Amino acid sequence: MAASTHIRRVGAPLRRLAIGWRTQSWPPHSRLFVAGDGNRWAIADDAAEVARLARGLGIQVGPERWIARVRNQSVFHTSQFTLIGLPFERAGNRLGVAYLHGRPGTPGHPEFDTCYESVRRRHAELDRVQVSNRAMEELVLGTGIAAEKVFRIPIGVDTARFRCRDDAMRAQARLDLGLPESAFVVGSFQKDGVGWGEGLEPKLIKGPDVLLDVCERLRREVPELLVLLTGPARGYVAAGLERLGIPFHRAQLPDLDAVARAYRAVDVCLITSRDEGGPKAVLESMASGVPLVTTRVGQAADLVRTGENGWLCDVEDAEGLAEACGEVARGAELEAILNAARETAESCSWAALRPRWQALFRGFVTMEEP
Fold first, then answer.
1. Nearest Cα to 188, choosing from 110, 108, 269?
2. pLDDT value, residue 4
3. Distance from C-alpha of 25 to C-alpha of 19, rounded to nearest angstrom
4. What is d(CA 367, CA 77) in angstroms, rounded to the nearest whole number?
5. What values do phi and psi take at 315, rounded to 5?
6. Per residue, what are the HEC states of 284-313?
7. What is the pTM assigned to this prediction?
8. CA distance 64 to 85
9. 357: closest CA among 1, 32, 18?
């Protein structure tokens, strides 16, 4: 047993050295390595989509598990916190990173200051930065980084997976989740508790306190209100809804296909965040044919037009958010809004965003272009 343990301990450094030697022996920047954040959550899905899209552009994509030892290749991090939030070395690589959210000076989030300061000091060592919205583009450019390195590309949506629902799909989704047909269901698709456990400590940047305020106001107008909570670490909101006497259903969804099916069951998708890179629920709900009510955060501020393809409210405006949800509950004319929302989602599908990613990869990694 001791001998096998020793072999494993010796073997790991040797494998790391072998990866470095092998990647260094390849033509420079001939392979792309896409990094997630180590969690099986939203960033992991983004990393998989970026890698798939890159392969479709004729780029050779290496295994993510090699990233720590890659040499002289091209590495793209889909979360800023796995690169610029930490000390990093180029190791001969070209480095790209998604800088999606986090304003310096945000209370309780010193990591936002760290990221911003890191880019300000070391932007010459970064070759590509993806931002998902106009506000973050302005923030990143404020570091002094060269404008030609910064690419505004929204967080995309898979419109084949998130399909526009019909009445039969809605009924089946409610049946699968055990939701009453008569309820007005508010869907909340996020992670708004600290950590990956129960999440009793609120992650205030996601606005879970605002969510509770909105639901309390909405309950006065909509007696059959029911809240669908998906995602991990929702304990704070669940406890708050229980305290308020508002019915809710907490669904642990195993994969993205299950998330797509859950959207079909809700009457409105509600986003109450104070800061976001996406959020992904913006385009997912639009693609699914679900009315969207959201705060003015992330790419929602660029994509949502009140009364045209959804409802956009100021951050912390619980009254406005509740009023918008109430408008949906009162039977607002939705056909034109949902059609426009679907068009917005299709314009930001991963397939539609391919030319923007192609522009980002050009000159960053070898690409077999026509």
1. 269
2. 42
3. 10
4. 18
5. -60, 135
6. HHHHHCCCEEEECCCCHHHHCCECCCEEEE
7. 0.92
8. 19
9. 32
